[in-house]
Amino acid sequence: MTRHVSSELHWGLLGPGDLDRIVALHTQAIRGMCPDQVRPESPEFFAALLEGAGRIVGVCDPAGDLVAYGVLQDGPDPGTRPDLWLGWPEDARIQKLAGSSVAEAYRGLRLQRTLIRRRIELADPDAYLYATAAPSNPASWRSLLHEGFEIRRLRRVYQDSLRYLMARRARMADTSAAGGDASAARSLDELLLDEQDRLLSQGWRGRLLAQAGCVLVPPEGAGS
């Protein structure tokens, strides 16, 4: 696989004229993946974002070819209402990291994580941010954990596909955060999904801890 230097890449917001190449990269990136791993998106979805329903960050190579993108969507998807599931304020400003793609030749450069970081910086300062990631797609949810997202729920969405619901604040500290008792943390890799679901419903949160890796942490004052 060809490796490229990330410093040679050019970053910027995409516009309506980029629709065809966004769709082409998305189609290429999800080839061979099932809906339980990644959500296929329609050209209409991307067109609406480019026309004002959100923003799309693009990454181009020195020749100007699109090699990666990341979506920041304004408001929640109707089927993934984190404001209802997570007890967010009724007037919360909600934005969603609604997917990204990286061309095969440019994988391994941590572009997924950089795209997450760029979209967090692009979001409204007071926004409640969320994303969904399939448990069967660890590259996606691990990247989100690395950039400060927490796993908050396990839900069936997108025509009954299983997804982690992940959230964080854009700039402000989340004062409702779990206590983070590392001594009681449990490794995600060692828990069946049913047990993860049970713990998440009790207020546990999935986090990345420096010494323990990807774990579920209980709310303050709670036992296992």
Q: How does this model look, in words?
A:
This protein has a 7-stranded mixed β-sheet with strand order 1-2-3-4-5-7-6, sandwiched between helices. It has a 3-stranded antiparallel β-sheet with strand order 8-10-9, with helices on one face. The model is unreliable at about 175-180 (pLDDT under 50). The chain has about 220 residues and is an alpha+beta fold. It has helices at about 20-30, 45-55, 80-85, 110-120, 140-145, 195-200, and strands spanning about 10-15, 55-60, 65-75, 95-100, 130-135, 150-155, 160-170, 185, 205-210, 215. It has 2 domains: about 5-175, 3-Layer(aba) Sandwich (Aminopeptidase), CATH 3.40.630.30; about 180-224, no CATH class. The protein starts with 9 loop residues before the first strand and ends in a 7-residue tail after the last strand. The chain is globular and about 55 Å long. A hairpin with a 3-residue loop joins strand 6 and strand 7.
Question: What key attributes describe this structure?
Answer:
3-stranded antiparallel sheet; 10 strands; alpha+beta; Aminopeptidase; globular; 224 residues; 7-stranded mixed sheet
Task: Write a brief structural summary.
With 224 residues, this protein is of the alpha+beta class. Helix content is 25%, strand content 29%.
